[in-house]
Amino acid sequence: MYYKPLVYLLFFSTPWMIWFFGAANYYSDYISSTYFSDHEEQNVVYDFIVVGSGAAGAVVAHRLSTSKNIKVLLIEAGGDPSFLNSVPGISADLIGYPETDWMHMTVPQKHACWAMKNNQSMWNAGKVLGGSTQLNMMFYLRGHPADYDNWANLTGDVRWSYENVLPFFKKSIKSYNGEFSDNKKHYSESDYGFLNIEQRRWLSLYEEFKESGEQNGFPTIDANGGSQRTGFAKIEATQKNGERFGTYSAIILQLENKPNVKILRYSRAMKVKLDKNLRAEGVWYMQHGVKKFARAKKEVILSAGSVNSPQILMMSGIGPKSHLESVGIKTKLNLPVGENLHDHIMTILAPFLINQPKSFLAERDFSPAVIYDYSVNGKGPLTVPNALHSQLFYSSASVRKSGVDWPDIQGFFAPAGTQDVLAKSISRGQNIREEVLYPLLEPHFGRDSFVILVGLVRPKSRGNVRLQDKNPLSRPLIDPHYLEHPDDVAALVDGVKKIVDVFESSEPFKKLETRLPKQHTKGCEQYEIRSYAYWACHIRHFTLTIWHPVGTCRMGRVDDKMSVVDTRLRVLGAKGLRVIDASIMPTIVNANTAAPSMMIGEAGSDAVREYWSQQFHVSNLWDYTFSLKPQAKCYYSQLV
Prior knowledge:
It is a single chain. By secondary structure, this protein is of the alpha/beta class. The chain has a domain at 110-120 and 201-234 and 342-464 and 473-549: Glucose Oxidase, domain 3 (2-Layer Sandwich), CATH 3.30.560. Strands 1, 2, 11, 12, 13, 14 and 24 form a seven-stranded mixed sheet that branches. The radius of gyration is 24 Å and the shape is globular. The model is unreliable at 623-640 (pLDDT under 50). This is Glucose dehydrogenase [FAD, quinone].
């Protein structure tokens, strides 16, 4: 039985449901904040102001509010997510709506994004309580140990080595239901944890995927167990009983019950006010069209992400002097804010056609039984976003020459059948022109298939974030300089060729008569299909963001000209001002960035607590004590 009418009803009603819940939440907050709020709150001085409630900001607010004597203000530009956000299977249909998504747009790219409208990449980011953890694919990945050891080397601070950040990863875990629960060194549960981690609950074609890897030198690996390397792995995710379990469910709902925490919804942070001594006094923000000011006694902490955090700093007069002057902003601190921007990118290989009904073909499989299985049992394809349940890591040729298996390629396996609604979701979510995408997919609508996304997770290209003008509500200018470094293209081509060979030549997929149709990408007709030049052309057309921008408020040594914050995440030259989010990464980790951002939130809030405990010469300012030893190799003693 086919369920095409049901699928199209859901697909076309989703925008209206998002609008309805967004409008209801907005006007409810407008009425309560305008007519029923305590006007004396405008005179409240908070100990800490945290801007942004995503993967890092929610953690910071949570950890700083453990003492009832500490007043914390959490400022969020969006409102509450709707029930739709909790359903993983419709994640792709929830991005690209202004009610909950920043929908940042890059400037036109010269070397990439040729299949996109105006050569621009759309960067989806959560404008909602919980931030991007309410829109993402819920991957729980930490990265390679070398990522963090490299940070320690670049910054000169051993506290950022893998051995020393591992306790912060573990501290966040409340419940681990993954495949490697026996690995207590990496997965022990914490009394202070809030995260629930589990495997995907729908694994169609996984056995074929796994066997194909083993036949081609890709063993099954523990991607988070400190030994990440070339191999295949199931995806572990921040889910609970099959539902999304981001920082909204894990943290924000608990914060709302704390009398010492105030959460401001629909409040757009514009800039930080600095006094004559460059101390942060508070934050100017816009709530429901009214400009307001919140005052901080101790610190202002920016956790607004790699686009908004640098924008707020530059609006505050902290940034490259020449650029600030060009838009009419007086420079207070000349720092390279907005530089060092880099992002994970991927290209799409689809459709890999198969001859058996083993993929999720919504028009055939989206049945009442599937809805029941999700709603009652927490199982089935609706527990998996975009059918993404497995992944692979691969070190390209240039990395292998170094003798270290530090993967620069990450592949995503999604047994999703080829259909119109899939094509529309990809097109809308990635700003792709339908006239380029549809010739690849439309001839195969209604066929069982799977999709492979090939990601570059150690890019060498670097870009920047700039201000458009001095209006804090204007969109920033984002230029990632995608694929400007030739090594990035070479690595992706190597990864694409390897992955196509694996899935077309392995015995399990041969039995399914697996094939990637040999049809040209529009704009690449002049190249021999599957040649190096052809794949390079395909990659430059289909340059898809993985929504992991980092690096724009770079952490580093105080004498490093590229540093914006020191290793305790304090803005250089300022007082009472920190940045705690993915923008501080000196270099990007080689995996999805949500878990590393939470780790940064843990490490950053720990640095804040350490500093203020020392200022007051007490050990009980927070609910547990510190025993920091600056020369110690392991810092786990800080956490308990």
